[in-house]
Structure formats: structure tokens, C-alpha cells
Automatic annotation (TrEMBL):
It comes from Phaeobacter gallaeciensis. Pfam families: YjhX_toxin. It comes from the Bacteria. This is Uncharacterized protein.
């Protein structure tokens, strides 16, 4: 999931009344939805500061997250 975010994808989130994130949907830069994107994976990436959101916008890969991604065939 982090590889797709590093290529320009985003995570759109919905918050509950108490302000906590209750659901997420991950999109690639082409607009496809990632099926392996779960709340648990999102929380791990957020805890490690690999993703960030600014001004309530969708979450995207941070500089640290982009540096943590190893090169794969679709990134070369």
C-alpha cells in the first residue's frame, strides 16, 4: 500500500462524531481502489509517520514514507 501512496495515491478518510477515523478508502493515482487497505494497516503507517494529512485533506505518503519504500518494478 505504501508503494502506491509513494507513486501518488491517497487515503480518503471518514471521521465519527468523536473525531476518530472510522473508515478509509485507498485510491491509486489512476483512481482505482486498493482492496488490501485496512484500518489496521493505516494505523501502522500513521504510527510510524509514513503517511500524513494536511488541513483535513486525504492522507498521502510523507517524505519519510517515500524514503522507506524500496524500488519495485513499477517504480523504475
Amino acid at each position: 500500500m505504501l508503494h502506491e501512496l509513494a507513486l501518488g495515491g491517497s487515503i480518503h478518510h471518514e471521521r465519527s462524531e468523536n473525531g476518530k477515523i472510522r473508515s478509509i478508502i485507498c485510491y491509486t493515482r489512476e483512481g482505482n481502489v486498493l482492496s488490501d487497505c485496512t484500518l489496521g494497516v493505516f494505523q501502522r503507517l500513521h504510527k510510524r509517520r509514513f503517511i500524513q494529512s494536511r488541513d483535513g485533506k486525504p492522507y498521502r505518503a510523507s517524505r519519510l514514507g517515500i524514503k522507506a519504500v524500496r524500488a519495485q518494478l513499477n517504480q523504475r
